[in-house]
Structure formats: C-alpha cells, structure tokens
C-alpha cells in the first residue's frame, strides 16, 4: 500500500507529494511540461478532452467562440441529433460518463426505409442482440460534458472568445475580442473551420490542407410529438426516405419529436430534372415537392414551411490536412483535423476516439510531446482517412442503394450471418460496434465483403436459396 506525505506551499498554492510505494506499483508523474494546457473549442471533443486531461491533473483553459449553451437563449435552441455508437461510448466509459449519457439516449435498432408510396421496411443494423446506435441531443451531450469538466479543479471555460490565430514564434493566441494570451501547448478542437489549422497552413512549411464539398447541402426540419407526447413514427429506428439523388432522414428525440434532415443538391444542374434547394423558392413549390417525394411524412410536419425558410442551408464537406501538429506545441484533433460528412454517424465517435487515443499516448510517453503528437498522427490519420472515405460511400448507399432489392437481400444475408456465426461482422458492424478494430481495417475487409455478398445476392430472389455454410466459407477467405 502506498504512503503519501503532503507539503503545501501557501504562497503559490502548490501541493507537492512524496510518495513511497512498493516497486510493483506503477507511478504516473503528473507534474510535467504538459501540466498547463489550452484547448481551443469547447464543443464535444474539446470538452471531453478537458475531462481526460483534468483527470491526469493538468490545468486546462478552454476558449469557446459561442456563449455558454447551458444558459440563456443558447440552451433553448434546437440542435441536430448525433448517433452515439461503441467507439464514442468506449471513450465516455474511460471517464465514467457512458451510463449517464446513455440514459438520455434513444436506441435505434436499424434503418426504417420509407418508399415513395408510403411502405416501410426495417433493416436491422446488426444480427446480434444489443448492437444498435443511440440518438442523442448534440447540445445536451455537449452541456453534460462541460458540466462534468467544470467539476475538476483547474478547468476554466472562457466563452464568447473566438480564436483568430496562433503565432508559432511567440506562442501567442489571438482572439476577436482583442485578447491575446501566450500558451506553448495548444489543442485545437475548434471544428471544421479551425483557426488553428489555418494558422498552421500559413506558417508551417510543407503543411497541406484542403476541403472537399459535396454538391449537396442539408436543411434541418422537424416532426413534432403527438398531443400526448407520443412518437408519430417508429421510435427505435433511424428513418430514411431514399430518393436516389436526394433523401431525408429522421432521428428520435426524448420529447417524442423527430429531428429531420433533408439532403438535397444545392443548385439545379442545367438541363437536369433533379430537385435542388435553389428551386424551392416558395411554399407552393416546397409543398408540391414534399407531396410528391415524402407524402407519408408531410402530414406529420405542420411547421414545414416555417422551418424550411427559417433554418439555414448547411454545407457538407470533408477536411484533409497534414501534419496535424507543430513543434510539440499545437495538435489538431476531431473536426479540426479531419471533418467528415455525417453519413456514417462517426464524426463525433471518431473525435471521441481521438481523445481516448491521445490519452493512451500521454500515459505511454509522459511529457515527451513531440513523440506523443507524432505517434498520434501516425495512428489516427490513416484511420480518419478511412472513415472519411466510408462516410461519403455511405451517403450514396443511404441515398441510392437501401431501396435496391439486391442491397436489401445483402443486408438480410448479413443479418443472418451475424446471427449464426460469431466471427462474422458486416462492414457497418465493424465500423460501428467494433471499437477494437481500426477504421482502416474495417474499410479494407468491409469493402471486400460487400463486393462478394452483392455478387452472391444478385442472381437470387430469396436468401433461403443460399447455402449459408458455403457463403461463410467464401467470406472467411477474405480475411
């Protein structure tokens, strides 16, 4: 058993410990050159990172451009849902927040497909019991992480402080308010438009950065709850209205409402017939479009026109950059390093996995920032690139393929394989329910499996025609 003696320096409010331990007890030295850190961005990744670092005894200052979402009008604003799955849950578990967060989540067991004529079909996410994703309020989760971070000594939030740059020579952070502070260790969790990434782009030789945008954008809409707070469509599903060149999805909220997101081309293509946001210029055209494409949803959306014209049209982009760090002083993570489109539901989960991976490297290398940052990028960049690619692939799958009979047979076959064989995981399951498996490996094996199973399901009408032992034998040869 360890014995500790404490000495307090009242002038500097420091506490020093002399710890006597047997040689078999692992010692982690908290006081090192990383003991004072700055985080830019108090969103999901930044707030979770603050908790991890605080638990290691680091003093943390977080600077956030927005006001505190827990007070005033910010707390009442509607925010999009997030799909929390195993990788994100694993990161929350490390700081004891997984059960607390999941208590405020709604399980989604699969994709509920809505055809143009109103029929529905549930495609389960997995053939295994207990494997599902969770609909969670982004604002509610962010607020919970902030509140947990503030419980730790040494964590300070600074709201309405938009970072505008970082001088790598002077180690000075600048803010739109005119404030300037020095910090020789900065974690950039300030999202897809990261000011820190832009600073590296301007000052680091060989830095490369680009943002690739889809021709599609998105608009947030709502299906309100029933009069008694009931859910007007299936509660435990992610609803999809796939229409080949566009789609709408809906995720459940605890109050019985659904947050809907319409994904549509931003602009009409000359000579083309596909709808676009720039064509829906008045209510008549909007309702005509919904009556034609989403007839079963329209009666459930009494505030459609109000929501459509009041809410902004968002862009869908992927951020690629390298390196993610500089001189052991700045490290990009989450969306600041690898923003992605939302179609695999992994943006938040990947960012949370970043935080968990970074913490493991701090545990391993202690105060050696340069090694930590280099190893972090070496581990995470190829995996981020893999899930960024799969997220774009999944957009076309959700939009075009989920209504395809061959694809639906493939999903039925995958579900059956997961029910029968413990060693089989679909690509979706590998990405979503296998936090022990790297994204890059899930992509490699998952794409090979998808190609094989689509070929197998193409010539048949029913998966009962298949010899399942022969199918699994062919799948195992891919590994």
Secondary structure topology:
Layout: E1 3-9, E2 14-20, E3 36-40, H1 44-55, E4 59-63, E5 81-84, H2 86-93, H3 98-102, E6 106-108, E7 110-114, E8 120-124, E9 133-137, H4 138-150, E10 155-158, E11 163-167, E12 172-175, E13 180-182, E14 186-188, H5 195-203, E15 208-223, E16 238-242, E17 247-252, E18 258-265, H6 283-293, H7 304-310, E19 313-322, E20 325-326, E21 330-332, H8 335-338, H9 347-365, H10 369-401, H11 405-420, H12 427-433, H13 439-457, H14 468-476
Parallel strand pairs: 3-4, 3-14, 4-10, 7-16, 14-21
Antiparallel strand pairs: 1-2, 5-9, 6-9, 7-8, 11-12, 12-13, 15-18, 15-19, 16-17, 17-18, 20-21
Helix pairs in contact: 1-4, 1-9, 2-9, 9-10, 10-13, 11-13, 12-13
The major sheet is characterized as: 7 strands, mixed
- Number of structural domains: 3
Beginning-to-end CA distance, first to last residue: 47 Å
Tell me the number of helical segments per DSSP (H or I, 4 or more residues long): 14
Rg, nearest Å = 24 Å
**What are the low-pLDDT stretches, counting only 5+ consecutive residues below 50?**
1-33, 74-78
Helix content: 25-40%
How would you classify the helix and strand content by structural class?
alpha+beta
CATH class placement of the largest domain: Alpha Beta
**What's the CATH architecture name of the largest domain?**
3-Layer(bba) Sandwich
Number of strands: 21
CATH superfamily of the largest domain: FAD/NAD(P)-binding domain
Give me the CATH fold name of the largest domain: FAD/NAD(P)-binding domain
Largest sheet strand order: 8-7-16-17-18-15-19
How much of the sequence lies in strands comes to: 15-25%
The outline comes out as globular
Integer average pLDDT:
90
